[in-house]
Design goal:
- This protein is an alpha/beta fold.
- It has a single domain, classed as Rossmann fold.
- Bound molecules: S-adenosylmethionine.
- The site of S-adenosylmethionine (SAM) has 24 residues, from helix 3, strand 6 and helix 5.
Amino acid sequence: MTLFKGNLGNYKILMTEDQTETLWSEYFDEACHNLSGAYDETVYNYIEGCSLPELLLTKKNISVLDVGFGVGVGLKALIDLLKNSDSRELSLYYYSIELDEELAKWSLQSTLPFLKLNRIESHSDTNSGSQLSYEGQWTELNKLINIKIFIGDGRKTLPKASQLKAMEPVDVIFQDAFSPRKNPSLWSVEWFTFLKQISNSTVQLSTYSSSVSIRKSLLAAGWQIFDTKGFAFKKSMTKARLSGETSPELLLRMSRSPSLEIRDK
Ligand SMILES: C[S@@+](CC[C@H](N)C(=O)[O-])C[C@H]1O[C@@H](n2cnc3c(N)ncnc32)[C@H](O)[C@@H]1O
């Protein structure tokens, strides 16, 4: 089994059933993807989960937030979607966050070797410290993706980027953090409240998780939630929007569970 060392410990490279690679993180003790297929799962949960193929037909500038850059499969799947879509002019923004810079570098080289991003350390006038990011563009014919990957804890880097107006309002969110048990700070009411604040009113959020706690966190933050079939053998996953209405059956089912919403400590 191949290993590489990141800032947060070792990563094991695992082959998944669709013959694409994922990583198992020693620090989080979890794999970045479902072993039934890293790429297929990403397309199912996020590209299709956020209705991107349909959105591309109606909206010219779409802003995507990928919560957790990880192996870079979300960005790869987004680029493939654009490559395969009709030749209309399209311009997207892709934002992501990543705690482990060595992992981001490894993934950029392995999953997206054709991308040339610049490492940028920006200093603001205020005392809020510097911000590290990898930035650049993917472009082909009349299609363009402006890419920014913020390095560090997304709970700090993303509010800073938003405050500095370094981001467009978000239309689509791939909520792909490690599990709520291992990584609660990216599933809390406070996090989902923040995501709401940086989003357009038509935003679509999708996540592989169907945990009652994360659904209660989303609801408490003002999102409406929808239960749909999960990838491969997974019975369900969660989509969320700021419009529509959570079904009374789902609310009833959740109210019967003793699991609580997740709050920041
Ligand atoms: C499940 S993986 C994401 C997989 C990725 N979407 C892909 O398709 O390859 C989650 C990633 O989020 C990163 N992460 C976890 N907590 C974070 C935080 N607080 N801020 C920024 N990144 C974080 C982890 O280091 C990990 O790489």
